[in-house]
Every structure is written in C-alpha cells, then in structure tokens.
Amino acid sequence: MRIQSRRVCRSNTVPPDVVPHWGLLLQQAVSVPGLLLRAYRAFHRYSVGNQLLALSQCEQRGLQPGPLNTFPGWLALGRQVRRGERALTLVMPLARKRRSDGAEEFEILTTFAFKSRWFLLSQTVGQELPPEPIPYFEADRALAALEIQRVEFDHFDGNCQGFSRGREIAVNPVASLPFKTLFHEVGHILLGHTEPEGAAVEFTREMQEVEAESVALLCCESLELEGAEYCRGYIQKWLYKAGKAAIPDVCARRIFQATDKILRAGRIESETPPIE
Ligand SMILES: [Zn+2]
Question: What's the CA-to-centroid distance between 9 and ligand 1, angstroms?
C-alpha cells in the first residue's frame, strides 16, 4: 500500500479584518525593519506565516503581542479568557486520508483552514506565569537536521559569497555576512532550486534569487542577526529584473515554509545559552 501526499490550500471562516494574503504579509515583513523580530519574539512557537498573521491582528486591534493559547489551553495553565474577548485567527493544517474507489493507494490531503481559537496572555486573567524563554539557534545543528553538508569553498570567484549544489553548501571564509549567506544557500536547497527538476525549472533564476534571499532575510530578522538591510536591496534588485512589483503569493508560501524548516531545525530550547 502506498501513501501519496498532496497539499491543498483552502480558507474558510476568515474574519474580514484578518489578512489572508501571504504575499502581502511577506511584503510587509520584507519592507518593515524589525517586524519579524517582534513577531518571532512573541510567537516563536508558531510558523512564520502564523507569527505575522498574529502580529498583524494585534496591531489592528491594539493588543499586546505575547504568549498565545486556546481557551482550554489557558484554563489548563490556571488562566481564564476575559469575558467578551475575541479570538485571534491562525492557519491550521488539517490532514486526512482519502482513497479513491477501488484504489489500493491512500492519498493524504493536507488542507489549510483559518480558525479563530487563540487568545493572547493579555486577554486572560489568573495565575502568574513565568516568561517564556526565546530559544537559541545553532547553525550546525540546523544543517545536520536538514541533511545538508557544509563543504570547502572552492569557487574561483573571490567575490562570490557562497554557493549550493545538491545538498551541499559552501560559504566564502571571508564572506561579509556569513549567516546571511548560509541561510540564502540553505534556502536554495530547501526551495528545490538545486534539484534537476521541479522548482529549478518552474521558477526563473530571478525568482529563485528572490526566494532564497527572502528566506535569508526572514531568518536574519527573526534571530536578530546582521544582514536584513542588505537582503532588502538584493530582493528589490531581483524583483525588478524579474519584472515583478511584489513577491507572488505562491512564492511567499514557499518562503515561509523553508524559513520555518531552518528555524525549527536549529532550535535549542534552553534557559542557558549554548557554549560558544
Ligand atoms: Zn543565490
């Protein structure tokens, strides 16, 4: 028996003041310095798309960004949602198995639905809770988890900052922004740009650069690492070359997914910083 996986996007029950356009959310994240850092600090347990979705609702409704939980989740922590508080809307993946008539193969359909069921700490009252520590990030841990090898930089062009091929990356030892370059190259791999088929032929060179650099920008901003300003200029340059005014929704989704994979792969939940 084989199981095939397919993803379908669907939106339902979206309150009119919630922005469901990923391209627009990404555009804001790309153009407003510090937005991602605020979103990551408050909502790092959630996907990048949901972080931005939650932050935009906080800003629209004048709410304090912070820990999120569902109504029963807060109850379990000894806190109650204040009467009259309206829930925040996030996107949830819903997976279900489907088998066509007489077929031996199952298909797993992942749909995405907007659900209004999360409340902020500031919308609740009750028992005091300790602040949630922000996780640390370790690049080598991320590379190992993503099965990406770091190889020696052997490019003849000294101006080149780094490269990716197959599942290998190299960063120029004198790269001006080594973390930014690392995220950019890992982005190329996770986005499928280094595979012989798929995204590598589906997206133009220009859009591949926009996608990889957007991943680098989201990672740098979330982790408060240098490079975001440079990324902004680079993305604009390649968007212009691609003849596009903004990053399309389809690319925004892919960029968010690749960023999530990197941030989650390198995450260390700890109260004490890792040894340098
Ligand atoms: Zn590139």
Answer: 28
